[in-house]
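User: Hand in any protein.

Assistant:
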Amino acid sequence: MTDPIADYLTRLRNAIKAKHRVVEVPSSNLKKELTKILFDKGYILNFKFVEEGPQGSIKIALKYDQVNKVNAIKKLGRVSTPGLRKYVGYKDMPRVLNGLGIAVLSTSKGVMTDKEARELKIGGEVLCYVY
């Protein structure tokens, strides 16, 4: 697999379109941090790290609106790819939907959102947009 983050986002996107409640993805440290950010920002309902086998997996419970059956995640977009990395400084940090969405960055201080990176005044690689 050349791009595990794109695979992670695609599995989430496909589960949302199929109206699944739970999706299981292969685990890695970067995916665990990305899952924690999605949970903290209210885009997913819950998650569980399963340590079985050589790699382990992450079970993610997707969040749906009870009345309209609409998912909390409208769009997941990969920005930086293995073929073309996108790096930004803290002054050039992207704003997703004028601050309503989040951009997830990989920085020297770890994986964080665009707002946190702007406060710490550090830049990094833009992994994906979520809104």
Q: What stands out?
A: Strands lie at 22-26, 44-50, 57-62, 76-78, 87-88, 102-107, 110-113, 124-130. The two ends are 26 Å apart (CA to CA). The mean pLDDT is 94. Helices lie at 4-17, 29-40, 114-120.
